[in-house]
């Protein structure tokens, strides 16, 4: 039976890995194509002249801008050729179907093919795209679109560099308004250090599986694995929630919609790890198998899926990039370590079960000889 459980564990882990590959693209779709990390820091310096009730902020690690208009008036965002692009007002958010920016801004790379109707000289044709008074969009003026860093960065990649100051024109009725901002290069962290710490940590957690399950130390190890999965699972839920909040999700309903539509695997992984941890703490039969399975999912869907932050300076979360790296390291340490420990405990149990009949046979032989 134990060997059957081990076989099933291997199949489930393989299936989890396949699901990670299949779901990689939509999982990153918090706001179309938000990055998992970047080395370019985008900031806004404000709106000039100031407009009370008009707020602009950077979201998704600089991938998009968010404009909220509470002025009670209509504000227009101007496109790349000076044409009206977005209209945000009391009646909702509209895009101009004749503006090339409407199509170019659909992806962060700006590589959408322009349809024949994209003509900046044509009269605006407005199409409602959202209710409310908040618009979110990619804007090439606030991004670095080249495949290689700027020359100054290539010359001194270990220093922070101001890439450029940027502006995006707005129109408040007939009055011109400007969003100002900066784009900087921030040196990335040493990914090798983070990976080295992570590997040492997961080996230490995995070593708990070497303790005999029937000994007091083995029982304590099972409890430690259960607690670590609960903590890792709670953080695995918090991480995608943070990404949704950073992407501009409003309220509990907005966060849930974002999680269910774009990060369902991360959410289920966190909840599953918490449940597996409680299961282990209750010392129920099959706890080793549950720990191994939940750990594999945690390492894949919460750890490996977000490991880009190890090599990127800016993370798409509303807390510091260093905190994001610590969380991802904990996902990998807890997940991969629990998987290794669970498999080691299952393997030890299978050897004990296999050895038991041989002992009985030897005793029967001794009795017969007597």
Architecture overview:
- It is a single chain.
- This protein has helices at 2-22, 24-27, 100-104, 151-155, 191-206, 216-246, 251-262, 264-281, 287-303, 321-369; strands at 40-48, 54-59, 64-69, 75-78, 84-89, 92-96, 126-130, 134-137, 161-172, 175-185.
- The protein has 370 residues and is α+β, with helices and mostly antiparallel strands.
- The strands form two sheets. The chain has a seven-stranded antiparallel sheet with strand order 1-10-9-4-5-6-7. It has a three-stranded antiparallel sheet with strand order 2-3-8, with no helix packed on it.
- Strand 2 (54-59) and strand 3 form a beta hairpin.
- Helix 6 (216-246) runs antiparallel to helix 10 (321-369).
- The longest helix is centred in the last third of the chain and has 49 residues, at 321-369.
- It is elongated and about 85 Å long.
- The model is unreliable at 11-32 and 359-370 (pLDDT under 50).
Strand order of the largest sheet: 1-10-9-4-5-6-7
Largest sheet: 7 strands, antiparallel
Please give the alpha-carbon distance between the first and last residues: 35 Å
Order of helices and strands: HHEEEEEEHEEHEEHHHHHH
Radius of gyration: 27 Å
Query: Structural class, please?
Result: alpha+beta
Instruction: Tell me roughly what share of residues is in helical segments.
Output: 40-55%
Which descriptor suits the 3D outline?
A: elongated
The fraction of residues in strands falls at 15-25%
Count of helical segments?
10
Give a count of the beta strands, DSSP E runs of length 2 or more: 10
Show unreliable segments. Answer: 11-32, 359-370
Q: Mean of the pLDDT scores?
A: 87
